[in-house]
Amino acid sequence: MRLALFRPLTDNDRGCDFGRNWIDRRLHQAKNHFVQTSWSRVANGGIKITVLSRIAPPVLNWSVETTETYTFLGETMHVKVHAKPTGHGLPRAWGRFGLATAVVGCERVKWFGRGPGESYRDSKLSQLVGTWESLADDLWTEYEYPQDGGQRMDVRWVEFTSGGDHPKRLLRARWGDFEGASFQARRYADMDIEQAQHPFELQKKKRGDHVVHLDWDHHGLGTGSCGPETLPQYTLHADREMKMEVLLD
User: Fold this and answer.
1) Distances in Å between the alpha carbon of 242 and those of 1, 126, 236?
2) Tens-digit pLDDT profile for residues 105-141
3) Which of the listed residues 52, 91, 168, 232 has the most CB atoms within 10 Å of its CB?
4) What is the pTM of this model?
5) Could you list the residue range(s) of the whole structural domain that residue 77 is in?
6) DSSP notation for the chain
7) d(Cα 40, Cα 72) in Å, to the nearest integer?
8) How distant, in Å, are the alpha carbons of 37, 48, 120, 147 from that of 95?
9) Number of domains observed in the structure of the chain
10) Long-range contacts of 138-145 (CB under 8 A, 24+ apart)
C-alpha cells in the first residue's frame, strides 16, 4: 500500500496546462522513499506503526514529506496520513491524494456513494447517491485513447468481494461521514495506462489482480480538450498540506 498523487492523463489534462505541468514537473516519475519507522502498543492489544517517508521525482527539488500511521486492532487497520509539500517547483496540482494497493481474486464491488457510472469532482451530479454493486471488470471505462477512468465519487464505503456461491470479503474501506472520498478498481497499472496509445496496447498489460485506488481527494476533469481547464474550486492544489484517514477491514 502506497500514497498516490498521480493519475493517468485524460484528454482534458493533455489539452490544458495541468497535464503538461505534471509531465514537466515529473509527477509521473515521483517515487516513495522510506525514511524512518517506529511502533508502539495501544489499548486493547493493538499495535500502531508510524512510517515517515518522502515522495519525490528524479532531478527536481520538490517533494512531499509524509507521516503515515497504521493502527492494527483485531481484523481492522486504521490508516491516517499527513502530507506536507516542500521545495521549489511543485506541480500546480496533484492528480489524486489517496492510497493505492492491489486486490487478488476480486470479482464484485459494492459501494455506497455515487453511481452506477463513473464520476469526478466536477461531473458527479450526473450520478445518483445510493448503494450500488457491479462486476469489478465493469467498473473500467474503455476509451478509444487510453486514459484515466472509472472513478466513483462521494463514497462512504466500498467492499471488494470474491465470486462464486459463497463470496468472501477481500477488503472493505470506510471513510465514515466524509463525503468527498472516491475509489477506482481496474486491471491496469497507472503507468501502463499512461504509456499506451491504443486499447490493444493496454490490453497486453492486463493484470491478474485489480489495482485499487482509495482516494481522499481527486483533481477535477475540466474541459481542457475543447474548453477551459479545471476550475479552481475543483482543482487539487499542490501547495497545501493534506490529511486523510480510512478504516480498512
Assistant:
1) 18, 27, 10
2) 999 999 999 999 999 999 999 999 999 999 999 999 9
3) 91
4) 0.95
5) 2-248
6) -EEE---PPPHHHHTSHHHHHHHHTTGGG-EEEEEEEEEEE-GGG-EEEEEEEEEE-SSSS-EEEEEEEEEEETTEEEEEEEEEEESSS--SB-SEEEEEEEESS--EEEEEEEESS---TTTGGGSEEEEEEEEGGGGS---SS------B-S-SEEEEE--SSS--EEEEEE-TT----EEEEESS-HHHHHH-SSHHHHHTT--SSEEEEEEEEE---TTTTTS----GGG--BSSS-EEEEEEE-
7) 11
8) 27, 29, 12, 13
9) 1
10) 139/109, 139/184, 139/185, 139/186, 140/185, 140/186, 140/187, 140/188, 142/199, 143/11, 143/199, 144/199, 145/11, 145/197, 145/198
Query: What separation, in Å, do the N-terminal and C-terminal C-alpha atoms of the chain show?
Result: 14
Q: How far apart are CA 201 and CA 205, in angstroms?
A: 7
Q: pLDDT per residue over 193-231, tens digit each?
A: 999 999 999 999 999 999 999 999 999 999 999 999 999
pLDDT in tens, 50-96: 999 999 999 999 999 999 999 999 999 999 999 999 999 999 999 99
Q: Return d(Cα 127, Cα 132) in angstroms, integer.
A: 11
Omega before 58 within 30 of 0, i.e. cis: no
CATH number at residue 157: 2.70.98.10
